[in-house]
Amino acid sequence: MPAPLTLGEALTRADALDRADTLGGYRDLFVAPGVPESAHAAAPGVTESADAAASDDAVVAYLDGNSLGRPLLSTADTLAAFVRDSWGSRLIRGWDEGWMQLPTVIGDELGAAALGAAPGQTMIGDSTTVLLYKAVRAAVAARPGRTEIVVDSDNFPTDRYVVEGIAAERGLTVRWVQTSRTLGLTAELLAEAVGERTAVVVASQVAYRSGYLADVETLTRITHDAGALVVWDLCHSAGSVPVLLDEWQVDIAVGCTYKYLNGGPGSPAFVYVRSELQSELRQPIWGWLGHAEPFAMGPGYNSAPGIRSFQSGTPPVIGMLAMRDMIALIGEAGIPAVRAKSIALTELTIELADAWLEPLGVVVASPRQSAERGSHVTLDHPRFREVVAALWQTGVVPDFRAPEGLRVGLSPLTTTYRELVLGLAAIREALDPAP
After folding, report:
1. Do 128 and 192 sit in the same domain of this protein?
2. Cα separation, 228 vs 98, whole angstroms
3. Are strands 252-255 and 270-273 parallel, antiparallel or unpaired?
4. Is 161 an active-site residue?
5. Could you give the angle at the alpha carbon of 173 between the alpha carbons of 150 and 214, nearest 5°?
6. What CA–CA distances, in Å, run from 310 to 129, 164, 219, 255, 286?
7. 277 and 237: one domain?
8. Which of 284, 309, 332 is at the close of a domain?
């Protein structure tokens, strides 16, 4: 067995990869990573202690792009110009000059760039939780007489909680599919779970914990063969892996925009509804802007046609503007190139984890086959809660997921091979400090 790479050798290799990176030039379009002097907030989910605070040092390795993407430099100009020229100058007239149409206009842009969705099927608005609720409730109502909602046991908490809430509200049963924390929902597991009682299946394309990449096309077909509908969560996949919603005949999909779509903290989510289902599905939150004639202000609710039927309240105009330049950038770079770099980054992560971290008791808790892996790698170790908290203070920023997972989140348009190597070296040092 060859000797493990030294740090110097790994950095030399990383620098060569960065020089050859066809996406490398895009990194200069983003705000340089750093932590402002005022930032002293504890790492979310890492520790309750105020001692686990970020320093004001520059970020050495940002390995959490799968939780919050870095902003584009143009975002500051876009938002400032909106405040000054659009909101500030046009005031309420802006609603008649394009604001009202932004949820579907930007939705179509996103559909074309990253979702494989033809126009008229994607809309921006609400949070992921609210859109999941709308989607699952609409799907359940469209399958009367069916009594089960199928969801896997290690799906993201929001998905599981929304499903449990709807089941309690509608008198339905949750059919839990027991999945491994290191894998996810497979065709074999789903086929055993669905049947004539299944109303809807709720699943994630990329598992939030392990990074397992589900076979959306096959799982959707299994769901349809059982006569049920499927709602896909794309939070950890949109913008980082291929998504072909139309081709795969997906019914409904929901996802956030602050991870690989770089819309900023709390940016509004998106919903996709296949065109053939839009007249059949009736979402439960009847707001005035989902009405066919919202400004008639009339009695009774008459749903708008098409994807706008999934709208409820006032469009989050400021919240959706930041993602627009990133959507265009993804469209320019192309998802195939983004995916290729994602695979290269995650493969290097696993290689160095095996060489540097496995001897220290670290376990790779993500699939080793790239075809089964999204754009993050989870590493398990009993000390990782405290290690992540300490790393944040030194400018190395992965994240922690209980019970003992450190996620190395790799955003292909912003993450360099050099910072990945430095980050993994810092993890090794934190576990085994030099004497």
Report:
1. yes
2. 38
3. antiparallel
4. no
5. 10
6. 14, 21, 25, 14, 9
7. yes
8. 332
Residue 290 placed within a domain: yes
Say whether both 92 and 18 belong to one domain.
no
Residue 199's domain is classified under what CATH number?
A: 3.40.640.10
Global model pTM greater than 0.85? yes
Q: Both 288 and 153 in a single domain? A: yes
**From the candidates 197, 209, 385, 407, which is the catalytic residue?**
407
Residue 70 lies in a domain: no
> Catalytic: 246?
no
Residues 360 and 224 grouped into a single domain? no
Active-site residue 384, yes or no?
A: no
Question: Considering 175, 197, 209, 259, which one is annotated as catalytic?
Answer: 259
Please tell me the distance from the alpha carbon of residue 7 to that of residue 99, in angstroms, as a whole number: 51
Nearest to 218 by CA among 182, 180, 248, 257: 248
Torsion, Cα 213 214 218 219, to 10 degrees, reads -170
- Tell me, yes or no, if 134 is annotated catalytic: no
Catalytic status, residue 156: yes
Question: Which of 30, 156, 270, 272 is the catalytic position?
Answer: 156
CATH number at residue 392: 3.90.1150.10
Question: Out of 64, 215, 233, 325, which one is annotated catalytic?
Answer: 233
Domains: count for the chain: 2
Nearest to 244 by CA among 267, 218, 262: 218
The residue count of the chain comes to 435
Q: Which two tokens stand for residue 319?
A: 């919240």
Q: Which residues contact 324 (CB under 8 A, 6 or more apart)?
A: 78, 106, 109
Q: Are residues 43 and 95 in the same domain?
A: no
How many Cα neighbours within 13 Å face the side chain of 63? Answer: 32
Per-residue pLDDT of the chain (435 residues; tens, 9 = 90+): 456 789 999 999 999 999 999 999 999 999 986 543 333 333 334 333 333 334 445 899 999 999 999 999 999 999 999 999 999 999 999 999 999 999 999 999 999 999 999 999 999 999 999 999 999 999 999 999 999 999 999 999 999 999 999 999 999 999 999 998 888 999 999 999 999 999 999 999 999 999 999 999 999 999 999 999 999 999 999 999 999 999 999 999 999 999 999 999 999 999 999 999 999 999 999 999 999 999 999 899 999 999 999 999 999 999 999 999 999 999 999 999 999 999 999 999 999 999 999 999 999 999 999 999 999 999 999 999 999 999 999 999 999 999 999 999 999 999 999 999 999 999 999 999 864
Range of the domain at 157: 78-332
| Co-location of 109 and 203 in the same domain | yes
Which of 332, 352, 385 marks a domain boundary? 332
